[in-house]
Hints:
7 helices; Metallo-beta-lactamase, Chain A; globular; 14 strands
Amino acid sequence: MKITMLGTGTSQGVPVIACDCEVCSSSDTKDKRLRCSVLVSIGDENYCIDSGPDFRQQMLRENVKTLSGIIFTHEHKDHVAGLDDVRAFNFREKKDMSVYCAAPVEEALRREFHYAFAENKYPGVPSLQIVPIDKRQFTLPNGTEIIPIEVMHYKMPVLGFRIGNFTYITDAKTVSQEERKKIYGSEILVVNALRISEHISHFNLEEALAFIEDMKPKKAYLTHISHLFGTHEDISAMLPPNVYAAYDGLTFELNS
Length: 256
């Protein structure tokens, strides 16, 4: 299984429009962060976790030629706004795009992409097949088992996912002890860390590091990073040996 970090930025991305801070002005390519998403490649099949506003750009950058499904964490715009661009895969592969999502996400998608669910569709609109999920484990058509992990984004439930020895969590502020049990034993953990100072709905650095220490993965990567956190180089200097700042285009492989 191969993981590609498609985007590692927060909802505004980095650089932020009209900002001339040190981070947004940085020439380091690792400080250019698209909205959060990962590509999970299992054999010849690719699955995307979330399709934010930068979905098209991410697919082009990584030269993705086939996509078997999109798995959604939650319904905020920075995680769903690019769904219309699955049309390219509909045309190429001549099949519906499988969309794995909880009920609140489905409601938002049907509202925001209403034309894709119309009884009489306009030619060329996305072709989607909703696959309902909740907190229970589900299995992809290729036999891969996925364990949803419910985290709280302030008062909003968001799903993280464990796939084999890989766990991906974004937009978390709190995680119950019951849900943490699903994460123990992960080889690689990706988790959000918005900035150094506290935030109402996201882990800050201190909270993310405490969470990682509790989960004890072999390696952990920080994502959903804001320009208020610092440059990639500055963030990296703050981290313990087994924790890294993720960046767009980062890849790693796991046995399972």
